[in-house]
Design a protein that fits this description.
Arc Repressor Mutant, subunit A
Amino acid sequence: MASAAKRPTGLAVKRDVAQRKERASYGARREEIVKSAGLVLKQHGLSGTTIEAIAKEAGVDRATIYYYFADKGAIFGEAIHGGLVEMVAALEKVAASGDSPEVQLRSSMRVVMRAFERHYPQLYIFFTEDSSVIDSELHTEIIAVGRRYEDLLDAVVRDGLRQGIFQTSLPPKVFAKTVAGMLNWTSRWFVPGGILDADEVADSMADTILDGVLVKKAGAGATRLSSSASAT
């Protein structure tokens, strides 16, 4: 006789009921816990973060944390994965906008920096920590989303090269990784509320990149120089 399916625990049932009946307040409280977890993650890293430390930062007890999240992995998932998914969805919209490559590149950089600012500091954990310490299925999904982020930047770069708008001696993939690297490295120094906000950082970096790769016109009737790197 097949064994009965594992029944949800009493706490899991309570979480489910609360999510349905008190959706707004329940979601807001979860977000507060995720924010607190982000601060702990930044200080102690994924492997060094504990439920006790998160509870202390959030000003609640362990039982309260478990009321909102099944375990530490669930908090990590919302802190890291949720922000990445939101960022990639916004990048997909930029890719489908039909804007010129240079506009798409700038818009994409703004999307990434806005996501870093909105989900600070937890989203930066993806770029500074070994996320393999969390649940394997979640880790696989996080890595897939991260790759999609780089693929979307790569597509913008290749489109600009194909159209003769960008020129660079770098292979397209290396150029795209250079852009992603500039954005990801902000995890080492960017703090919301500092001298520059997300858009100012993104625009300054975009200006630097575009000033170096945009094909310059010698005159109104001049033709664009061909790209020195193949877009294929």
